[in-house]
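User: What would this chain look like folded?
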Amino acid sequence: MYSPEQFIVYPAQGVGVIEGLERREICGQETEFYIIRIFANNIRMMVPVKNAASLGLRKPCSPEEADEVLAALQDRSTFVGYSGQNWNRRYREYSERIKSRSLLDVCFVLKELILISAGKELSFGERRLLEQAMGIVTSELSFVLNKKNAEMKTFIENFFADILFKEKKPAGPLARD
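Assistant: Here's the prediction, encoded as C-alpha cells.
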C-alpha cells in the first residue's frame, strides 16, 4: 500500500504523487481510492486501492534502473523494426508495452518508433505513441535523475540525432537531390 506524499508511476501517464486517500461509496460498497496528481499534465485521478497493483501502479525506478534504460536506448543492436508487420499490429503491441509496468518496455517502444521513422513516415497513431513514450520515459528519468524534463528529452534526442535531425526529403517521384 502506498501512502500520501509518496511518488508513484502510473503506466501510460508517468510520474505523480499520491495526494491522499479517500473513501467513496460506489454501487453500495465503500471503496478506498488513491488521489494521484500526475506531474506531466497536472491531472488528478482516483485509483481504487484494491486495483492499484493490477493497474500497474509502481514506485519510480532506481537510478541504476534509469542507467539501464539509457543504455538500452543507445543500443541499436536489438532493433526489430517493422519487418513486414502492418502499422495496426505494431500499434497494438506498442500500446500494450506502454501500459506495462516496465520502463524498459516503454523505452523499447520509444527506440523502435524513432528508428522506424528513419526508414518511413510514421502513421498518425504511431506518432502519438512516440510522443506518449517520449513523455513517459523523459518524465520518469528526469524525476529519478533530478534533471529538468526538457533537458532529459534533449539528452535522449541526442542519442538519435542522426535520425531525428536529418533533413527529410519528400518521397516518390517528386524527390529532388
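The first strand starts at residue 7 and ends at 10. If you want, I can go into more detail on any region.
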